[in-house]
Amino acid sequence: MNKNISKNIGLGTIEGVFIPTILTILGVILYLRLGWVVGNVGFIGTLTIIVLAHVITLFTGLSVASMVSNSEIGAGGAYAIISRSLGLEAGGAIGIPLFLSQAFSVAFYIIGFAELWHSFFPAHHILAVCIITWLVLAGISLFSAKLAFRVQYFILFAVVLSLISFFAGPSINEGPVLLWGKMQEATYWETFAIFFPAVTGILAGVSMSGELRNPRTSIIRGTLTAIVLGFVVYVLSAFWFAYRVPEEMLLKDTSIILRLGFSKTLIIAGIMGAVLSSALSTLVGAPRTLAALAEDRLVPFSKGLALKAKNGEPRNAIILSAIISLAVLLVGNLNMLASLLTLFFLMTYGTINLTVLIEQATGVVSFRPQMRISILIPIIGFLGCIFSMLLISKLFTLVTFIIISMIYYSLAKRNLISTTGDIRGGLFALISEWAAQKAMSRPYHPRLWKPFLLVPVENHDDLRRIIRLVRSIIYPSGRLYCLTMNTHTDRIEPQLNLELDNILLPLKEEHLFSQKINLDSQNGFVIDLPIVMQTLLNTFLPPNAVLFTISHDVNKRILLEQMLHQVRPLKLGVILLYVHPKYGFGQERKINLWLRDKSPNTNLAVLTALQLFRNWDGLLTLSRTVTAKKEAARAAVQMELFKEKARLPVNTEINIIQGDFTKAIISYNTDITIVGMPKTYQQILDLVEIIPNTVIFVSDSGLESALV
Fold it and tell me: What does pTM read for this prediction?
């Protein structure tokens, strides 16, 4: 119902976008600060400042145009643009400060209007003028947005008359045109920072996106036309100041414009009208931003704030916005916050440019705007906004980033889901693609090794039993691939998938990479596993080790032997895990690593032991058996040297045992035993029958090194 009403009473390009935008641009800076800027840096310096400032705003306007020509952004203006691309968290992090800045700005504009009024009517109390002005503006905005913007026709008329009066007035300069200033009162960049707020009102019309008959056309035409026209007016006005007023007067009298017009009354009316217009358009735009935030449930009391009256007005959001602005009015002079508010607006503009940059850079097919722009435009617009923020205030720039980060963090914890989708997945994919290209262009070196485990899962209960150990092997930056094969291709097993998700949930909560690979197979693991593994090994981010569990079932042991024969030729580490049926992983403390002299499987065994040592906070022992007593000393020296080269923990114990390996391994008390892979499968089975604890057999792939 509200949508239909909005279509019927929707605003057009002139009243909905162009007029509020141009009136916000032609504000107090034009009347009361531009003359001082010219006096300080001269006309040439002022021209460069105007050009630089308008490049930033023009490029931001082009970025906005690109976004709205791609899709309907809906209500919320800048917030809608950002949230539809970067997600609700980013939209809220920018949108909430933007709304508060808009609401606070209303108070600043009203205070500015009241002070001007008081300078001409000293008998009128400033606070009384503020309250009366607030009541009038709040009443207009509460009644109808259309009425508010039609009132601005009269204000625009007053501004035009004031400019005519200014350009047609007398000259008080008998000298040459002031082309170059001496920068007596401020540096060039300080002057730029003072001027820049003049062009930060370019989203006044965009904020009304939900109230426009044709948002796509109106926002593009109205915003860009206002920016260009504002640029022309500022350049002509700067030249007029330089041509008609001497340098000393420009610097001493910030209200010199009142002496330049043929009618002082018209100039005063233009100044007051410009300030009043900014207050009115902001008071109308702020509730639209708040209502859009409420519709996405990003602010408290969202249900009530999102409600709209029969005429489509967000009545509750308007009332709250007006109350906030009134509270700021009653507090009084808040000039110290003026810079912070400007920075919030700049941060919004910068984020819009960043949004367009990301949309273009990711190359998603959904981003195909009718108005295409060079990728340099959002880059320059974004960097220009950040540069301007730093110029205005480094301290408040830091405060701005902290506030936005805190809001983003609080919203991110709520796991918000957007129904419109966003581009973040594409951004991460872009980063991944870039990183993949860079990584694949570099030669592999064993120092890059991290545990990337492939775990074939035939029974979810088996995975549940070993998931803690798997986590200890891959934490903190390894990866886990769980491979399941469904041999019943005629039926879907959602319950089994849900069980697997629940098993992997603790890993995901720790932000560990864990991926399910579900395949339909008529042949089972023995036949299809080698094919799947060869495929995975040729992908980016492949597994580098496969972990099998040794079952007590005789038939499964036979199948495991067949799979080992299939896997051995692959360039892949192999880990065989036998979980002791009685002791399991014990206290997850003692790790006994057996190292044979010149064993081909030392590296993966040591790296696996190190991972367990770190994540168990365990005690590591290096063990070796020797046949003769005279070999023990030499073996101890070799083990100490290896311990040093491998940079093993200082408290690693070395245990040299004279005698038979089988008897030694049986007698040693530990929670887990790690052994290099025996030559035959039968030797593996014989050992698991006699070792009194959980045991891991390890076979190197050739890609690991414990010494790098």
Answer: 0.69
